[in-house]
């Protein structure tokens, strides 16, 4: 039998205020609380230190962006080293003048930058005008070795694409995180709210099953502008079981123990990687099959 490799994971679900420094300080307080309760890997929500900036196309919002490394990652690197925790830090990244990304820095437990992921799939929907702000990521799908586990990160809209999860898993990810900012736009909660949340969670649970790994999705919560963010952050095991789920209407810090030896068990009993017909997948590189 494989030796247990237990990793304590925390997901931080928070309501954001207008002032980035307030959000940063409140997040640090929650990180400290999570670490005091044993968390070793802590993931924050999408663009964690600002209110969601993409509800309108507004050039003033670009002032919220910062470089990576930069002030926020420098601060959180010191926190990570002090607490001996791994942090997943999603930020509005300024790469250079006129070039911005929706990104996530992975900071190792010694405070070093273990890796950087840039969101690959960029949506353009009512109140989610991300194409105005963000260039698509150009670093591919990645997994980063850290002190406690090999960590993969995708961001929000990436969660609807099975290929993204598969390629991240193929890089060796044991824990796959989806920092998220998703909620109900006006008029949708009563008629579509339950089915929308179910689809969101089901999609990521399916990634956990198909790839035999742990999946965590920290979402923001509460009203911002016209969006009511639906919270409901959760962690699923390699069999798709929801290990813990946050409420829809309040802040939360989820704590989950992840036994990484389950990856070997799940993948040998459900050998999806063994049975993949990689010789038949060339058409996935096309937009659509005409034949």
Describe the protein in words:
The chain has one domain: Nitrilase/N-carbamoyl-D-aminoacid amidohydrolase (4-Layer Sandwich), CATH 3.60.110.10. 25% of the residues lie in helices and 27% in strands. It has 6 helices and 17 strands. The protein has helices at 20-36, 71-83, 162-170, 189-211, 262-269, 272-275, and strands spanning 6-13, 41-43, 86-96, 99-107, 113-118, 124-125, 128-129, 143-145, 150-153, 175-177, 183-184, 214-217, 221-224, 227-230, 234-236, 242-245, 252-259. The strands form 4 sheets. The chain has a 6-stranded mixed β-sheet with strand order 5-4-3-2-1-17. A 6-stranded mixed β-sheet has the order 8-9-10-12-15-16, with helices on one face. A 3-stranded antiparallel β-sheet has the order 11-14-13, covered by helices on one side. Helix 1 (20-36) packs parallel to helix 2 and helix 3 (162-170) packs parallel to helix 4 (189-211). The protein is globular. The N and C termini lie far apart (48 Å).
Report strand %.
25-35%
**Looking at CATH, which topology would you report?**
Nitrilase/N-carbamoyl-D-aminoacid amidohydrolase
Compute the number of helices: 6
Under CATH at level 1, the class stands as Alpha Beta
Low-confidence stretches: none
Radius of gyration, whole Å: 18 Å
Biggest sheet overview: 6 strands, mixed
The CATH architecture designation is: 4-Layer Sandwich
> What is the CA-CA span between the terminal residues?
48 Å
Give the % helix. 25-40%
Strand-and-helix sequence, N→C?
EHEHEEEEEEEHEEHEEEEEEHH
**Class based on secondary structure composition and strand pairing:** alpha+beta
């Amino acid at each position: 039998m494989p030796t247990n490799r237990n990793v304590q994971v925390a997901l931080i679900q928070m309501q954001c205020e207008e002032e980035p420094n307030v959000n940063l300080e409140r997040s640090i307080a929650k990180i400290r609380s999570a670490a005091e309760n044993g968390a070793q890997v802590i993931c924050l929500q999408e663009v964690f230190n600002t209110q969601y900036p993409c509800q309108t196309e507004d050039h003033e919002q670009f002032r919220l962006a910062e470089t990576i490394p930069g002030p926020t990652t420098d601060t959180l690197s010191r926190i990570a080293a002090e607490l001996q925790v791994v942090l997943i830090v999603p930020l509005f990244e300024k790469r250079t003048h006129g070039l911005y990304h929706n990104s996530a820095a992975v900071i190792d437990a010694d405070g070093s930058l273990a890796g950087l992921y840039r969101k690959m799939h960029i949506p353009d929907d009512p109140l989610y005008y991300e194409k105005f702000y963000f260039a698509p990521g150009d670093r591919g799908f990645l997994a980063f070795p850290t002190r406690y586990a090999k960590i993969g990160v995708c961001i929000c809209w990436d969660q609807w694409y099975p290929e993204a999860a598969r390629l991240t898993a193929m890089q060796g990810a044991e824990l796959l995180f989806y920092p998220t900012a998703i909620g109900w736009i006006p008029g949708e909660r009563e008629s579509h709210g339950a089915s929308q949340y179910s689809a969101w969670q089901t999609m990521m649970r399916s990634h956990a099953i198909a790839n035999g790994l742990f999946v965590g999705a920290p979402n923001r919560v509460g009203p911002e502008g016209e969006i009511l963010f639906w919270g409901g952050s959760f962690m699923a095991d390699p069999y798709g079981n929801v290990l813990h789920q946050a409420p829809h209407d309040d802040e939360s810090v989820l704590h989950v123990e992840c036994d990484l030896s389950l990856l070997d068990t799940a993948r040998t009993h459900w050998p999806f990687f063994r049975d993949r017909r990689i010789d038949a997948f060339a058409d996935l590189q096309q937009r659509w099959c005409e034949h």
